[in-house]
Amino acid sequence: MDAAEPTPATAQPDPLAAEATAADGFDWSALQEAATAAMRHAYAPYSGYAVGAAAVVEDGRLVTGCNVENAAYGVGLCAECGLVSQLHLTGGGRLTHFVCVGGEGQVIMPCGRCRQLLFENGGPDLRLLTVAGLRSMSEVLPDAFGPHDLA
Question: Which of 39, 48, 84, 150 is the 20 to 30 Å CA partner of 10?
């Protein structure tokens, strides 16, 4: 397999999604599947670590993103960057539900930079499916720096 191609994702969603759906009624499995589909478009020829992200916007839109690496390592883009770009490209709004997956379709945690992006575009009440189950953005990024700090 070419290093630029992500590892094929498993057909079964992470058991965390089923538990999360049972807990709050939101279809986390479908959101994880959307993130996995986005992950298949990742450009990760250097690390081989494909990532996909998916979120629902307050008006019901689905936005997705995948990571895009670059030979100048510092300018690579995380999947969440593409997702936030798609959010604003398609009309803006607030993210309400979010999940990020790795190369096998498994739930992974957003990095610190991406947590900040998610806070800015979803606020403290954004719901995330994480490796530890359902969490709010305020739990994933406590005491977050945000627009209120610039006022």
Answer: 84
